[in-house]
Specification:
Radius of gyration: 21 Å
Distance between the termini: 42 Å
Largest sheet: 3 strands, antiparallel
Number of strands: 7
Shape: globular
Strand order of the largest sheet: 2-1-6
Low-confidence stretches: 1-10, 92-102, 104-108
Helix content: 40-55%
Strand content: 5-15%
Number of domains: 2
């Protein structure tokens, strides 16, 4: 489905996955589904036994070129969990990370560029009696907007016991191989975003991430434990869109497999 929102950048329509990448995606996904099919059956039974609701969670997500598609995962939350998002907004890890430390106005007054130069690097604003560097103020206001774009909750109460286990081992991702077979995703790429997140990232500076395929794994997934703000997440997405090639994809897949087995060992 082509994006119905106000995306005017014609470069979105120019992106096409290469034949080699598509061939690898299909072969890899078929092998994964065949090998892990018995495990997927057991996962489906466990989900159904613990809580009512569908086994597969389906949501509208935005991929390459801002195309919107149905995204599949094993359900890891209680039924109708999406309706509780507003109630959990104060628990958003990205927003909490931004709020840590000094008051926003006082943060803006401590511009590192002004300190380095020994004089203001831009015009000075006066807000609530505080002298504020305009460049740094605008930069932090932009970061504040980004922190409100993404949503992540630690110890999310909506997650079931089976779902928490699946998420820790990334087993809830298995149905996405079906998305790959359909051509909506790739094995390696940028994480497909919910529509409400993607719509806020449509400026020239941030939207470059949509010039890469949506992926099961990628640069952000491998570094998610070290990322504490939304700007770094977007930076990695844009980076992959600019440098992606077959060799980089293979390295990401190998690192993802190593990460999976190391993390699984630490869980047990």
């Amino acid at each position: 489905m082509r994006n119905k929102f106000s995306i005017t950048n014609e470069k979105f329509d120019q992106y096409q996955i290469s034949f080699g990448k598509r061939f690898f995606d299909v072969v890899f996904s078929l092998m994964a589904i065949i090998i892990f099919f018995p495990f997927m059956v057991l996962i489906a039974i466990a989900i159904q036994l613990e809580s009512k609701g569908p086994i597969i969670y389906k949501a509208r997500r935005v991929g390459s070129g801002f195309d919107i598609f149905n995204f599949y995962k094993f359900r890891s939350m209680y039924k109708d969990a999406d309706k509780q998002l507003n109630k959990l907004s104060e628990m958003n890890e990205y927003l909490k990370a931004f709020k840590k430390g000094d008051d926003f106005i006082m943060k803006v007054a401590k511009c590192p560029d002004c300190k380095k130069l020994g004089h203001p690097c831009s015009s000075i604003l006066y807000i609530d009696g505080v002298e504020i560097c305009e460049n740094y103020y605008l930069k932090l206001k932009k970061e504040q907007l980004l922190e409100r774009v993404f949503f992540k909750v630690k110890d999310d109460p909506r997650i079931t016991k089976v779902g928490r286990f699946l998420r820790e081992l990334h087993l809830d991702e298995f149905p996405q191989f079906y998305n790959v077979l359909k051509g909506e995703m790739s094995v390696v790429g940028n994480r497909p975003l919910p529509i409400y997140e993607a719509v806020k990232l449509t400026t020239d500076e941030w939207a470059y991430r949509f010039m890469a395929p949506a992926g099961i794994t990628g640069l952000w997934q491998l570094n998610s434990g070290e990322i504490h703000n939304a700007e770094d997440r977007i930076r990695l997405d844009n980076q992959y869109a600019m440098i992606s090639n077959t060799w980089i994809d293979l390295k990401i897949i190998i690192k993802s497999i190593i990460y999976f087995f190391k993390f699984r060992k630490s869980v047990y």
